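User: tokens in, sequence out, please.
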């Protein structure tokens, strides 16, 4: 029979094993003794978060055993949130900003961006630089050009060229297939498409496994187009589907669209908005609107409230506006400073009806469970890259989101759009290492997301 081990022999064996075991190898970076906040797990106090390269490897109680690490960031008294997203940017819209944008985003804690419209020849080198292995830049997801209809709003003539023509369903299918082959991350549908072109764009995107963002086309109702896409931008054209005379307005709109034979798409779109937007808001019907909102229960809304409420909340009056401009490319900063002076000295009062409607609409949608995501349309409408996302969070809270929900709108919802919620949007082991360390509690005041102590992008501390 086998011999029994004596206690002394066991002790010697254990000592010998310990002598042969190498010491634990230090790996990764720890953010120590921090309050962790994310939309998935809520608030966890006194935590140490460890990341190794582009992966969070542990979230542990700060007073417990911590693995050996190569470096430590003091998180005491701080608040750690996931890296923020801007869900609606245009990297190549204004060439004065393109080169500076990546650093500007990171300085404000934006570690991921979704480019919602640009021409492929201009976007490809920008995206390539941002995705280079050694790049210090946000993660970038792009759609290529806006997929417009026979008449293109952003045609390079009346407006910068960021749109493409799709006059027929056949052309639409070809466009999506070409973009998918070029490596885009999603498709963006614009306002001048017909229902048949819309169906072709969305259907082909689904076949190619691409999510779809869209404005509600002028030829369709929000309750028709919204459920077919993954996100809707700017609350555009929802007001008609909430009016008690919406059917009559819709028929008027179709008559104008069908009779248009020549002229810029921008002018046609602007004419219809000017003709119908405020009258539709003036005929708001709560019951009809509730039915419309119910159809959008699974469609992420990116309201860009910062832009929509520009007349109600002009950025030029903010106490930190001058500081924001000081970090903006000089030529654009000078232009925007002049625009601010002209805006503030104008004698004509600005109509805020649309602004107030937008805030109410986001509040109604949120109360109904419609998912909301944060985007700014930067650099359009005086949106300083990075800076403007924090303004968007303020507007979302003003509309009715709790601060934690607003943080979720800039972290978890964007990840959900790309089906990346298993990798991004929360602070957990296995998640990507995009993190923002704040000096003050964003749940006490959402403006505290601006009080940034440190940013980690793709596992790399950047400031």
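Assistant: Sequence out:
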């Amino acid at each position: 029979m086998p011999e029994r081990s004596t206690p002394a022999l066991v002790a010697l064996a254990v000592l010998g094993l310990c002598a042969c075991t190498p010491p634990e190898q230090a790996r990764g970076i720890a953010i120590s003794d921090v309050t962790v906040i994310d939309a998935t797990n809520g608030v966890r106090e006194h935590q140490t978060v460890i990341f190794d390269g582009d992966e969070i490897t542990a979230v542990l109680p700060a007073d417990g055993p911590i693995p050996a690490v190569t470096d430590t960031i003091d998180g005491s008294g701080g608040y750690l949130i996931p890296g923020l997203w801007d869900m609606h940017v245009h990297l190549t819209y204004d060439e004065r900003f393109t080169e500076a944008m990546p650093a500007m985003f990171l300085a404000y804690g934006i570690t991921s961006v979704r480019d919602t419209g640009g021409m492929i020849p201009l976007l490809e080198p920008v995206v390539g630089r941002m995705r280079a292995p050694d790049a210090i830049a946000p993660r970038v997801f792009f759609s290529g050009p806006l997929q417009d209809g026979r008449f293109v709003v952003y045609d390079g003539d009346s407006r910068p060229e960021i749109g493409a023509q799709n006059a027929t369903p056949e052309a639409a299918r070809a466009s999506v297939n070409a973009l998918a082959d070029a490596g885009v991350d999603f498709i963006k549908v614009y306002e001048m498409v017909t229902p048949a072109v819309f169906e072709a764009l969305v259907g082909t995107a689904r076949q190619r496994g691409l999510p779809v963002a869209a404005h509600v086309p002028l030829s369709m109702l929000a309750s028709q187009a919204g459920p077919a896409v993954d996100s809707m931008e700017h609350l555009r054209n929802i007001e008609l589907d909430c009016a008690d005379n919406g059917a009559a307005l819709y028929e008027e709109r179709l008559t104008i669209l069908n009779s248009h034979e020549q002229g810029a798409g921008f002018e046609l779109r602007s004419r219809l908005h000017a003709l119908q937007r405020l009258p539709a808001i003036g005929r708001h019907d709560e019951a009809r609107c509730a039915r419309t909102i119910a159809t959008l229960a699974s469609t992420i809304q990116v309201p860009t409230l910062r832009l929509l409420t520009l007349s109600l909340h002009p950025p030029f009056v903010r106490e930190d506006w001058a500081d924001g401009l000081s970090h903006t490319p000089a030529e654009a900063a000078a232009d925007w400073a002049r625009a601010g002076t002209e805006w503030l000295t104008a004698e004509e009062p600005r109509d805020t009806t649309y602004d107030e409607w937008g805030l109410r609409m986001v509040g109604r949608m949120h109360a109904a469970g419609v998912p909301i995501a944060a985007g700014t349309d930067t650099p359009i409408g005086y949106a300083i890259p990075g800076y403007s996302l924090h303004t968007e969070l303020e507007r979302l809270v003003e509309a009715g989101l709790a601060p934690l929900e607003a943080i979720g709108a800039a972290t978890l919802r964007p990840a959900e759009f790309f089906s990346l919620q298993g990798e991004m949007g929360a602070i957990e082991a296995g998640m990507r290492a995009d993190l923002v360390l704040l000096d003050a509690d964003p749940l006490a005041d959402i403006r505290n997301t601006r009080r940034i102590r440190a940013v980690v992008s793709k596992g790399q501390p950047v400031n």
